[in-house]
Amino acid sequence: MSHTWDVVIVGAGSCGCIAAHEISRSGFEVLLLDMKPREKIGDKVCGDALGTHHLKRIGLDLPPEVVVQDVSGVDTYSPDRKTVFRVGGGGLGAVILDRYKFGQFLLNRAIDSGAELSASTRVLSPIIKSERVIGVKVHGDEVYAKIVLDCSGVGGVLRNRMPDGTIDKELKKSELVVAYREIREIKEDPPEYCEIYLDQIKYPKGYAWIFPHGGRTVNVGVGMPSNLNIKPREYFYRYVMDIPILKDSKAVEKGSGVVPTRRPMDLMVWNGIMFGGDAGFTVNPLHAGGIGSSMLSGWLMAKAAIRALSIEDYSLRGLWSYTPEYMQMYGAKQAALDIFRIFLQNTSNEELNYGMHHGIMKEDDVLKASIDGDLHLSITDKVKRVFIGLGKPNFLLELKRTADRMRDVKNLYLAYPETPEGYSSWLSRAKELQRIIYG
Predict the structure, then answer these.
(1) How far apart are CA 202 and CA 205, in angstroms?
(2) What is the pTM of this model?
(3) What are the respective helix, strand and coil percentages of the chain, to the nearest 5?
(4) Residue pLDDT, tens place only, 207-225
(5) Using CA atoms, how far apart are residues 68 and 136, in angstroms rounded to an integer?
(6) Looking at the structure, do residues 127 and 275 belong to the same domain, yes or no?
(7) In which order are the strands placed within the sheet that holds 49-51?
(8) Which of 15, 102, 253, 400 is placed for a possible disulfide with 276 were both Cys, Cβ 3.0 to 4.6 Å?
(9) Pair 112, 180 in one domain
């Protein structure tokens, strides 16, 4: 392929299709590459839930056929299942998607706007010349572009093949969640809210979920960090299936998946290339939901690409605006919630039970943390006495320290530099905080 495209996008998922639609409808030539055949695009193991605030943010209206049902929020169960935090309203409305129809809708929308699809195309690596990405190598050919977008998913086919020192590309095994999920027919009406179950014995450092999926079906699964070397399917049948609503249920669909759960990339652009969706580490690290933030990153990459194409500057400077805009709209919250993820993963069942039962965080505080990344605590003298009695006063100290670190990290990411000149100083502060938090 000797033709040079304005933009080549690797991956026709939520991120890639949103970007392709926005750029092509602005009059630029877009080539969308995906390793799946066209009829398989959108077929993905997923929780299938999408917060409606994400749709409003990018101005996307969904056709009725891609929405299975509406849900009002989330119920989170303590390990002993005696306490339930119901979080709803205040921007946490959601829809349950027919994931395949949703993916096909986004794909057709991108093609209808003018993007060209090359399906069943395996991308091998970026083409780099004079310290700039100028295209991608595909099986048996090369494709050239003014700008390349890596929306290739958790595998990060381009991200992982970037030269060392160009971008932040490390994904630790502790930051990679492995999940097993089934769609099951149940004998009774499904829950009105999405349900999340915490238990460090049954779902160590992760959680189980039951989401309504239309009619008398539910999306049910379990996810845990890959560094534990646990097979989620075994834990699913050993522990998740003991939840009463699943008694005598029947599996109609089965599958596994992996999701990156970490802070955003320190730098999401380089000369000639941007990174978004799972390939750009945009997943919410607390609950591992990634559809909305993936679409947001595709939308913001499109804005940056259109600006760069308009001024014919495809360098790091020309693409720079994408990262600070992402940090303002989602990345700062994401970075803060990654700290809360680490805290929860190192909290015992006993601490979780007592913490939820005695209201160290109120339901409204959980809502605010989910939306804004701010952790508000209600540590009364009574709560202090309870945890001293448990012999766990350090739990409260660590919780307070976590809240403080979340605030500091959020403020740092909100202050992401508007130009490349401020990046070195910002990165020094970020690395210091990362050293304290991650070790």
Answers:
(1) 9
(2) 0.94
(3) 40, 25, 35
(4) 999 999 999 999 999 999 9
(5) 37
(6) yes
(7) 49-51, 94-97, 67-71
(8) 15
(9) no
